Amino acid sequence: MSRFLLAVLILACVGSAIGVVHARHRHRLLFVELSRLEKARDELNIEFGRLQLEQATVAESNRIDQVARLRLGMKFPEAGDVVVIRP
Amino acid sequence: MKGSVKNAAPNRSRSRARFNLRGRVLMVACALGLCSISLVGRAAYVQLVNSDFYQREGNERFVRDIEIPTSRGMITDRNGEPVAVSSPVESIWCDPKELLKTPDRLPELARALGEPLELLTSRISQRAEKEFYYLKRRINPDEARKILAHGVPGVYSKREFRRFYPQGEAMAHVLGFTNIDDRGQEGVELAFDEWLRGSPGEKKVIRDRRGRIVENVDLVHQAQPGKDLVLSIDRRIQFLAYRELRNALVSNNASSGSAVVLDVATGEVLAMVNLPTFNPNAASLGKPDAHRNRAIIDMIEPGSTIKPITAAAALTAGVVTPGTQFNTAPGWMPNGRYRTTDTHNYGVLDVTGIIRKSSNVGAAKLAALVPDQQYYEFLRKFGYGSKTGSGFPGEAAGQFPPPSRWSGTTKQTMSYGYGLSATPLQIAHAYATIGNGGRAIAPTFIKGQRNESTEVLSPAIASQVLHMMQTVTEPGGTATQAAILGYHVAGKTGTARKASAGGYSREYRAFFAGLVPVENPRFSMVVVIDNPQAGSIYGGIVSAPVFRNVMEGSLRLMDVPPDDIETWIAAQEKNEAKRPLAARLPTAIAEPATAVDVRAALPAPLPGNVQ
What InterPro entries does the entry give (chain A) (predicted)? Predict the structure, then answer.
């Protein structure tokens, strides 16, 4: 009986040792995957920031003002140009 | 052991017969046994007893904690438009030792960097003993990639973040700027540095001898990217205010100016502009004088803009009604050794008339009826002499001495805005309080943050004062140029002589402070123009047009319904009568023809990155 118990314990010990190695290996793999995804996320965030910056630069008020006035010949409607409709 | 050898030597020389094999084997076995015991003992000591120390020492040779860089949060305006963005840039660096091993590649590198070869060679050879040297800092990542593509050994790049401010000069003072370590130095960048900054993460890695990362071991803690911040500023109103203030400064040949727009109901700062300004994107930030957010930091004597508050104090004290009459003839009255004077002799004025004509003598007579302590406490409640609570770095409280430090003429002088000082933001805040039915709300730069409001003036008196200020922009008032078609405008002009060493100089400040629309005010705005030198010095002529132009645009942008539609329709009918019928018809038919031209005239999409 006690011999059987000993065999079980030895098997369990070896099994858990292999389990630890396996878990450790999976941890490494997942960590690599996590790092890769985080890097991808950061890259996308940074790209997004850059695009926003680009958009904000293109849509800068002073530039819009200049383009509208000089290149498109737009002007602000004067009070006389606005037609008020009685409700 | 040595002893046994000594003992053995004479034995050998004496006789072979006395050779004791057993004793010798035992001795060697003992010696070997002792050796192995000491080895096992040592191994056990290293592995079991003192294992931590050796593990740590071992790890220090190849395991490293490295920082995970993180970017600073973005700042947007109230509509989500980015106004401060951290963008990655690359810095090209080299290892001069390694680079100089292949000097034949230097001309190629020089060409890639766009730099003369001689300069590059001398720069690098001066640092031949170093292992790190920046070749080019903070450049566009695409450019960096091109340089690295040449594959010159010993040339590397490193990611850094740089702050960009798409609105440039127009918002420079509110936003402030960061230093090279990405820490806020001024303005909102400084006030909310903790919030924006985030914290870099840390991870454990295994590195080889040359410093390359072989394996990621563990995450010590995650990088916390900086949080975004939504300001109460409206980019469009901000730009409008900036443009109009700049135009006014140029046309009046003035030295500096400030404008503040507040949302009356929430206390949010919608725009805050100062001139002169600086370009926060430039490498050198110019003169420090231009960095000052004058609207919050400079203390100025508020001049006549304080008269509506004086009137409100008198009305609250119950000593006058809006119709109470004062005789301001002959247009001056004694003020200690000096005189309180009006620009004209206005004769008999009621309280409304004092505001409309901006009579100093009238204001002095109003204040004379209010007890000192009561007048002081009333102005304190309006925020004079204390910080507004906006949380902006370096905010000034203004100077407003208590009655115990007043001389005989102090109150009379204060009643029309001298002898005390306030920031333009404080003035805008005091006016917003009147516009908000007498409830004071501390201004804020953050969208949606609503500070507690306290009632400092009864709603009935607030409304009376508002209607008195409305007469200022109507015919007969001091600021007819502030009138906006379709809206009733309440405002007050101010023209104050600037204090200088030992008295008042010949330089002036032109003020206009006002509220629109009078029925249910939405905006409170203050315009201060310093030292106008192109002829006119009066607030009603120098500053009021800035107010009108900015407010006209803001009312349209924020969809505020007109409260004076009758005047607008009347003006329109008057105009139409003069114009031919054809001009009155809508010109919708002509539009498709011009649509094509408009597209052609649009600018081409921007090439590449804007950096």
Answer: Cell_div_FtsL
